[in-house]
Amino acid sequence: MHNKGSISSFDIAYIGGGSLNWATKLMGDLAFDGTIAAHIRLFDLDQAAAERNARIGMRYAGRADQTERLRYTAEPSLKAALTGADFVIISILPGSFDDMAHDIAIPERYGIRQSVGDTVGPGGFIRALRAIPELAEIAAAIGTFCPKAYVCNLTNPMSVLTGALYKVFPEIRAWGSCHEVIKIRKLLAFLANRRRGEVAFGYRDVKVNVLGINHFTFVDAASAGGMDMMTEYMAFAREHHADGWRENPIDPADEHVRYFEDMNRVKFDLACRFGVAGAAGDRHLAEFVPQSWYLDENERWKFGLTPVEYRIRERTEKQAAAAALDTGAALPPPAPSEEAIVEQIKALTGGPEHVGNVNLPNIGQMQGLPPGAIVETNARFSGLGIQPVHAGRLPAALEVIVRPHAERQTALVEAVLARDSAALLPLFLSDPLVSPIGLDRAAQMFRDMVAATTHRLPEALARLGKAA
């Protein structure tokens, strides 16, 4: 961190700098904020994509008259991007969309449905096998080239990969950032406004106590404007449990909404079962429990299964949009995104304190879950660093579902980094989406999935698929 006149200037390394989603959100947020001076170094295995984003970033900076403060460059190597960085953002795609298609299609042949397939279940497991070695390489490089940097991981499976960062470089100052909890904060803001009789609150005005693991998060306390909102939420969940509720109906012609949004029925059902509010989107929550709960009848529960075919088409559209921006198309109007990275950076460098949900090793903030496991709770960002906020404990009936996931995620990181291929199949079999199909079929499915991944795997793991 250094000074240019009276302006504090930061070096931000963006790993996955050719991103079609998160990188442009950061560009817009930095330009909109107008108080941060930074050199954003974009590194991507696709150098041309990083160079394109560097040009787009400078367009954002220019429109906001921020070219004296913000500079974007595409870097030729991980070392060049990281050396001396104050902040590191990790936003990569582990493997390809073809790999993701196999992650979904192969389990489906064995009768396993997945709504996302990027966190748990067979798809999340195989994605982790692809991604852990990459995050390990990045963590080691951070330890060498910028050991004091703050590191924000945006890549899924978030719990596993944030754990990999800490396993490889225990002194790392990293957190996993996920926006899923915003969904329940928006719903609580709606309820608070209804109670007040006017639009007085946005989701940023809603305070929640978050506890759980990434994408299987819960809220057991909430307030807005000094009003306790949990009793009202629980009554609302019971009222709309049967049919679900959404402020704006899902337009069946809008593919993005149809595949990524929901009617809150899973959240409401979990609230009625366990007495705490499910915080993530229904399509994520559904994958952590047996398939018979929700995934077998996802249409009845009113959430979509996100097809990889749609993700591929959406990526093509985003590539076209990025190419248009690169050749002079109008930039989106200035407006802050829902991401918290800029607020977190400002808080860590002496700005206003920020409190929000993040993924960190458990040092006691989550009772009932193993020490060291990556858990999702609130944390306080300030000049003192990142300090987890004590969240308490999940209801006992819910804890017995969450704890095995947390233990499995930790064990998976350890097995991959140790090249302990013998440990992988038992872990794979223990997932609640996998175990019902039986040992022999699950073992064959595992071999099929490993063999189908086109992304590089450590040789000890790749050999598992060669026998398929």
Automatic annotation (TrEMBL):
Belongs to the glycosyl hydrolase 4 family. It comes from Rhizobium puerariae. Its cofactor is NAD(+); Mn(2+). Binds 1 NAD(+) per subunit. The keyword Manganese applies. SUPFAM superfamilies: LDH C-terminal domain-like (SSF56327), NAD(P)-binding Rossmann-fold domains (SSF51735). This is Alpha-galactosidase. Keywords: Carbohydrate metabolism, Glycosidase, Hydrolase, Manganese, Metal-binding, NAD. InterPro entries: GH4_Enzyme_sf (IPR053715), Glyco_hydro_4 (IPR001088), Glyco_hydro_4_C (IPR022616), Lactate_DH/Glyco_Ohase_4_C (IPR015955), NAD(P)-bd_dom_sf (IPR036291). Residues 210-434 form the Glycosyl hydrolase family 4 C-terminal domain. PANTHER family: 6-PHOSPHO-BETA-GLUCOSIDASE-RELATED (PTHR32092), ALPHA-GALACTURONIDASE (PTHR32092:SF2).
